[in-house]
DNA sequence: CTCGTTGCAAAGGATTTGCACAAGT
DNA sequence: ACTTGTGCAAATCCTTTGCAACGAG
């Protein structure tokens, strides 16, 4: 079958995307991308921390400014996405398709949901307001089952 | 008719809610609440700015730390709500019912939508994950009609 | 060799916090 | 009077920026 199927997109090497824009492939960029993929949802800080761990006591990890710059770049290249979950902590993820995230306000837990959850809402907004929803940046907040359960038992 | 109808909730004076918790009614609290009501959606900074304007060159406005502390308090009292629109900028609003906000990522414009927009999505999440969506904190981001139009003409 | 990249350090903006004084009740 | 609330200033947190040295193509 085709060597350029739809799934090949995100799997395509970082190198090619960089090349096509006259940008350079550096070890730092590969490491940042790898970290985003490894940690499913991570803040820039968490990514920095991870890189520091990986590097070990002797090796050197990318500077935090480099992490920020590269996250921005990787997003422009379409290799990662970021979402705001609430209070100042964007999380980055590397899935191939835009996800929809739900966050528990109590425990901070994150779950991913199929993006079609909002299809009907998106259609209504498009029809009524001409507003195009960017599903990838949406995070719904609320309470997860576990926390709801706990709240109930503590607050009878 | 009952003197404690469901609509009387948000209209109930700030004073009573404070009293019932042993808290005090201060000029600052009244001003902060008034500002949130006046500015439909405002960041803590905008609220502070507004209070400074209102005070005029001679009068004194509440300190920003007081604004933050009181916004938090008013939210605990159920008189205001806050929503995160994306990058670190919480907005406060004082409507009686939770609203749903949509934000344009280009122009920053905010529109309010009826909360029932997400009813079906909320039901699905409840059924499938046991997750309770807090509609009041949800902000959908995307592109408004005007910005979409502009983007089209600039990028043919 | 040339120009994009990185690290370091310093600048910034937005909240938060500790405290002594001022103000509600 | 007693206790909560406020202003002020310092402390944080997270992110961005300027610049000289470094390294990929």
| Most extensive chain-chain interface | A-B, 32 and 31 residues
Say which CATH homologous superfamily of the largest domain in chain A is assigned: Winged helix-like DNA-binding domain superfamily/Winged helix DNA-binding domain
As a percent range, the share of helical residues of chain A equals: 40-55%
Structural class of the helix and strand makeup of chain A? Answer: alpha+beta
CATH hierarchy, class of the largest domain in chain A: Mainly Alpha
Shape of chain A: flat
Can you give me a brief rundown of this structure?
Chain A has about 160 residues and is an alpha+beta fold. The first copy, chain A, has helices at about 10, 15-20, 25-40, 45-55, 65-75, 120-130, 145-155; strands spanning about 80-85, 90-95, 100-105, 110-115, 130-135, 140-145.
If you had to describe this structure to a student in words, what would you say it looks like?
The structure is a homodimer of 156-residue chains. Chain A has 156 residues and is α+β, with helices and mostly antiparallel strands. The first copy, chain A, has two domains: 1-94, Winged helix-like DNA-binding domain superfamily/Winged helix DNA-binding domain (Arc Repressor Mutant, subunit A), CATH 1.10.10.10; 97-156, Ferric-uptake regulator, C-terminal dimerisarion domain (Dna Ligase, domain 1), CATH 3.30.1490.190. Chain A is built from seven helices and six strands. Chain A has helices at residues 8-11, 14-19, 27-38, 44-55, 64-76, 119-129, 145-154; strands at residues 81-84, 90-93, 100-104, 110-113, 132-133, 139-143. In chain A, the strands form two sheets. Chain A has a three-stranded mixed beta sheet. The first copy, chain A, has a two-stranded antiparallel sheet with strand order 1-2. In chain A, a hairpin with a 5-residue loop joins strand 3 and strand 4 (110-113). In chain A, helix 3 (27-38) crosses helix 4 (44-55), helix 3 (27-38) packs across helix 5 (64-76) and helix 4 (44-55) packs across helix 5. The longest helix of chain A has 13 residues, at 64-76. Residues 1-11 of chain A have low confidence and may be disordered. The interface between A and B is medium-sized, with 32 and 31 residues.
């Amino acid at each position: 079958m085709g060597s350029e199927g739809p799934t090949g997109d995100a799997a395509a090497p970082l190198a090619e995307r960089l090349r096509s824009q006259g940008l350079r492939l550096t070890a730092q960029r590969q490491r940042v991308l790898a970290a985003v993929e490894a940690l499913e949802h991570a803040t820039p800080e968490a990514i920095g921390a991870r890189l520091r761990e990986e590097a070990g006591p002797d090796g050197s990890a990318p500077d935090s400014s480099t992490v920020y710059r590269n996250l921005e770049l990787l997003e422009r290249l379409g290799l990662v996405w970021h979402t705001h979950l609430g209070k100042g902590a964007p999380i980055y993820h590397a899935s191939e398709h835009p996800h929809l995230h739900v966050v528990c306000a109590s425990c901070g837990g994150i779950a991913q949901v199929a993006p079609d959850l909002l299809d009907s809402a998106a259609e209504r907004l498009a029809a009524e307001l001409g507003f195009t929803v960017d599903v990838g940046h949406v995070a719904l907040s609320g309470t997860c089952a576990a926390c709801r359960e706990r709240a109930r038992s503590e607050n009878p």
